[in-house]
Amino acid sequence: MKIRKKTSTTAEISTASMPDIVFLLLFFFMVTATIKVNEEQLNVQIPNAHSLTAVDKKFLIKELFVGIPKDSKLGSSPRISANNKLVNLDQIGQWVQEQKSDLGEIYKDQLIVMLKADEQVDMGLIGDIQTELRKNNARKILYRTLDHQPND
Q1: Which of 9, 93, 134, 147 is the most buried (most CB within 10 A)?
Q2: Angle, CA 139 vertex, CA 134 and CA 142 arms, to 5°
Q3: CA distance 93 to 64
Q4: 96 dihedral zone (left: phi>0; alpha: psi -120 to 50; beta)
Q5: Angle between the 123-135 and 92-102 helix axes, to the nearest 10 degrees?
Q6: What is the DSSP secondary structure assignment for residue 48, as one 8-state letter?
Q7: Consecutive H or E run containing 63
Q8: Which tens digit of pLDDT belongs to each residue from 45-97?
Q9: What is the C-alpha separation between 69 and 75, in angstroms, rounded?
Q10: CB-side exposure of 2: number of CA atoms within 13 Å?
Q11: Cα separations (Å) of 5 from 8, 10, 114, 146?
Q12: pLDDT score of 18 more than 70
């Protein structure tokens, strides 16, 4: 009776196709990725603040800009911009509904509109925007300003 010695065998994983897989993943993510260019269309000089309020849930904040267009072809009267697109006063209701639909069902009534307006914009336009927001049940409005630093 002979005693057999156990031969040790090693299991190796072939890595020959690893560069192909890495290249395909890299190519996939390069093709599917989007680059967001945040280029504002309005000039907005924000006034100084006298009091500050912090918001805990930043995802509830949606921004509206009001200012003079940078491009003279768009005119010299104040315009409204939402999501880097110029909107008319009568389109604010549709914009509010789109923003609410982007939020979850439990957060729809908690939408906060941050209004960034140029200090030279007439308050009549700001009042009209507030009215449109109220009509569409967007009652929480923040006004974005520069931080006010008191003189010592």
Answers
A1: 93
A2: 120
A3: 12
A4: alpha
A5: 50
A6: B
A7: strand 61-69
A8: 666 666 666 666 778 888 888 888 888 788 878 888 888 888 888 888 888 88
A9: 7
A10: 3
A11: 9, 16, 78, 82
A12: yes
Give the global pTM: 0.57
The DSSP letter of residue 147 is P
Cα 5 to the chain's mean position, in Å? 69
Gyration radius from the chain CA atoms: 28
Tell me how far apart the alpha carbons of residues 121 and 99 are, in angstroms, rounded to a whole number: 24
- The total number of residues written for the chain in this structure: 152
Q: Specify the amino acid at residue 17.
A: S
Query: 81 forms bridges with which residues in the sheet?
Result: 65, 86
Residues facing residue 69 across a β-bridge:
42
In degrees, to the nearest 5, what angle opens at C-alpha 109 toward C-alphas 108 and 111? 75
